[in-house]
Structure formats: C-alpha cells, structure tokens
Design a protein that fits this description.
The chain is mainly alpha-helical. Helices cover 78% and strands 0% of the residues. The protein is built from four helices and no strands. Helix 1 packs across helix 2, helix 2 crosses helix 3 and helix 3 packs antiparallel against helix 4.
Length: 152
C-alpha cells in the first residue's frame, strides 16, 4: 500500500475519529450515559490500532508470494491487502466478543454484526483518504500541464 506518511496519518486520525463517534454514540445510548468518556475513547483507539495491525499483517501476507516469484499488480495487491485485513479484523473481533460457553445466546449474530459495522468504518477511512490523495494528485498534474503550455 503506497500511501505517504501524511496519508497514513490522515487515515489513522479519520479512523480514530469515526470509531470514537460510533463507539461513543452507541456506548452512551446503551449505558444511558453512566459510563465515562475515557473508556469509550480508549475502546475507539484500541479498535483503530487493531485495524492497523490487521492492515500490516494483511499487506505482509499479500506480498509474501513475491518470495516465490509471483508478482501481483499494485491495484490487486491493494485490494487483496484491504480484503484480507478486514477479514482478519472481523475474525479477531468475533473471537474477542464471542459469548462464553455458559452464556446465552450462543449465536454469533451480535459479535458478527458489530464486527462487520466496524469493518465498514475501516473501509470508509481508508478509501476516503485514497480517493482524496488521487484527486489531489490529478489536480496537481492538471495545474502542471496548464503551466507548461506555451502562451498560457
């Protein structure tokens, strides 16, 4: 994933902000405001850090076939990294939130739904910064092309 340092920082900040808003809104509604804001902020930061660990692991696993001489196009490598990272993220969250063997209900509906919603927030932050970076790059190229035209 070829993001600049500024883009990575933007993704991290946007991801933490989105998760903070989501976790805070749900946390305050579910607990009727009885929980402190500190624990909700820490939950949002922890979820965001888990997302970036999964992105790192996913990107590393996608690049691994290059050791065998198999080259993937940059677009396919990016898509595979994001897909694998989100699958890891959902899997880890479901395992962490899975009810114990003595708890009722013993279905995966709740943890899977929560994990999928959080994975969607991962995608929003990542693609928003990727699209923004692409638009800025095109804008700069267009301005550079106009400046090099004779008589402009």
């Amino acid at each position: 994933m070829n993001f600049s340092t500024v883009q990575w920082l933007s993704i991290i900040l946007l991801d933490v902000l989105i998760k903070f808003l989501l976790v805070t809104a749900v946390g305050l509604v579910v607990t009727y405001g009885l929980i402190s804001l500190d624990s909700l902020v820490m939950a949002a930061i922890s979820l965001s850090l888990l997302h970036f660990v999964c992105l790192f692991v996913g990107a590393t696993l996608v690049v691994a076939p290059e050791l065998l001489g198999i080259r993937l196009s940059p677009m396919l490598r990016f898509a595979a990294s994001v897909a694998l990272a989100n699958m890891l993220f959902v899997g880890v969250l479901v395992v962490l939130m899975w009810p114990g063997p003595n708890d009722i209900p013993r279905t995966a509906d709740g943890p899977v739904l929560v994990a999928l919603v959080l994975a969607a927030t991962n995608l929003f932050a990542l693609f928003a910064v990727a699209v923004g970076g692409r638009l800025i790059k095109r804008f700069k190229q267009g301005r550079r092309a106009k400046q090099t035209l004779p008589g402009a």
